[in-house]
Structures are given as structure tokens and as C-alpha cells.
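anyone seen this seq b4? input:
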Amino acid sequence: MRDPKPPDTQPSLEDVFDVILDGLIVLSPEGEIVRINEEACLMLGTSTESAKGRSLLPLLGQSHPILGLLDTVRRTLSPMVADEVLLARPFEAARVVDVSFSPLSADSSGQIGWVLVLRDRTAFADLLDEAAQRERLASYGQIAAGIAHEVKNPLGGIRGAAELLQRRAGDERTRQPADLIVREVDRITNLVDELMVFAKGETLQRQFVNLHRLLDEVVELVQAEPQAADIRFERVYDPSIPSVSGDADRLTQVFLNLAQNAVQAMEPKGGGTLTLSTGMALENRLKGEDGRPQPTVVVCFEDDGPGISAEIAQHLETPFFTTKPGGTGLGLAVSRHWINLHGGRLRIDAAHPGGGRIRVKLPLTVGPAGGHAALSGDQTE
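predicted toks r here
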């Protein structure tokens, strides 16, 4: 007697689609989504049910580079690729993806569909960015040491001569230029001192820090400034986050700088909302010394100002580059320096739509007895 026929165990096309690690989307000749796998849904922040039958426009937004790529493929009927395209997502960090578009074989009616492949390069792009950061910070340290040696000593002589002129001045007209020299020398000296942070081997004064209490103090400080009079501050905190190991003074310096930058970005329009949020990173977490992902806290500063263009974002952390009148251009570079010393990362999200967004990632080191300090929950002001 023959064995019964084994059940059909051949995987379906949908099964194959969903185990592929790249995002795959099949479009109809009219550009509507026919099939989409789970990875593509994660990248675009959608679901299979809601995506099917829709075009890419509502998922990507107007004038997205992927839409331009599709237009070119439609026109030429030839495959096209694009590297490191940013995918902005409403409530998460932007992803960096490599994109390929290919025409699908003609069907019986002679029409052609399209296949879109999205390969996530976010982790790789982050590694490259981290390596570039380390190189930049090392070069800043060399520059700072050179400036301190070549500039600070002559500045001391100039200031001493100006003070001598102040004492010998017989009238106000003679004293004013000397006063100006002293003020400008002090300003340059302060700039050099700020830049020297990259050259000094400073250590952090670590303690277990309640991030939410620290952020509340930063909000109070910024609210007291006249330019924040019409700004609405919204705090969206994850109450489960315990205390973290960090230098409270340095973290305050970083968060205060980020909050002030956001307020200044909204100032020209006469108001806006600054949202400070905290949460745990579920993907692209920080790695420890053993190379393994470790629990990571994310602190996000999000404003509804004009946003940060990709061109400006590339230069924002370069010392002395600034878009603010009277700014020194050192704030973000110094902030990134202190966050790096904490083992964290500072990210400027230039792809975020509708405003500026900067995220700070910090490794989570649990404090005494679990470190679950009483943290404030969601609140709005």
C-alpha cells in the first residue's frame, strides 16, 4: 500500500515576500500598491491593509525623491537606483534607505507594473556618522590646542596694554577705545576657552540623574527668557524610565542649548510649540563595549519652526558655523562632545517634516535599587 500524498508544504508568494529583509512593493501600471511586505510597511509606517490600493504619494509626501525615481522609470522603462534616500516617519527617527525601481514584465494587455525595493542602511549610515564624528572631534582638539598656544598668550599682552591705556586715559574719548579692546579680547578669550573643551581630557562627574526632573528645570530656565514668552512647552515623558548615570551639569548644558536653539528657531513667527519627549529606543540602540545593543533612552526636542535643511544640518556642528546673528557656532559641537563622552549620540533629523527635531540617545545604566525615581508623567503647559 502506497503512503498517502504528503500535504503541500510549498511556501506561498506572500510567505516569501514577508521573510525578505528588504522592503518590497509591487505597483500596478497605474502606480497603485498591489503587494507590500512587512519590512516595507515598517519603513513607511503603514500596514498591508491600509497600503494596498493606494499610491505612494500619501505614504511618502509631496516631491519625495522616490516619486521622482518612479517617474523616470515610467518614462525610460529602465531600472533606476538611488543611494541613501531619507524616509521621514511621523513618530520615529528617519531611516536611510537604498532604493531600486524596476519595470515589471508586460502583462497580456501590454501594460507594465513596477517593483520597488527598499534596503535599510540606517545602521550603516550611523556607523559612518559615528566614525566621522570621532575624526571631527579629534581634529577639533588639535585645532583648539593650536589656537590656545598661538592666540591666548598674545591676547594677554593686548589686554594688559589696553588696561594700561585705560588707567592713563585723561578723558572719556581716550578711554572708550581702550574699553573696547578689553571687551573684545575677553570675548575672543571666552571663545577660545569654549573651543578648548575638545582638547581637554575632562572627566564626567557622574551620578544617577532623574532626566525628567532635569528637563523640567531646563524648561523653567527657558520660560524665563523674554523670547520664550509666546512659546508653548509640551512635555511627553515615559514614566517608566529610571535614573541614568550621567553628569547633571553637562546634560543640563546640552539640553538647555537644544531648547534655546528651538525657541530661537520659532521666534521669527512669533510663537510655536516645543515638545520635549522621552522614551526607550526599540531599534538602532547604542552598543556597549562588548558590541551588543544595550538599553537606550531617547530624549527628543521637536519644534514647529522652519525646520533644518539637509545642507545646513551638515555644517551645524562645525565650530563657528552659525545661522544666528551674534551666535558663536559652538553650541551644537560642544553638546555633541558631551553626549559622546556619556557614550551617547546626538542626531539632527533634517528629514523631519514640519519643524526641527534633534534626538539625544543615552545608554541606560540603572541606579540604586533599580533607580526608578519618581518621574513626572505626560503633561502639557
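The chain has three domains: 18-120, 127-198, 207-380. The domain at 18-120 is CATH 3.30.450.20 (Beta-Lactamase). kinda curious what u guys think
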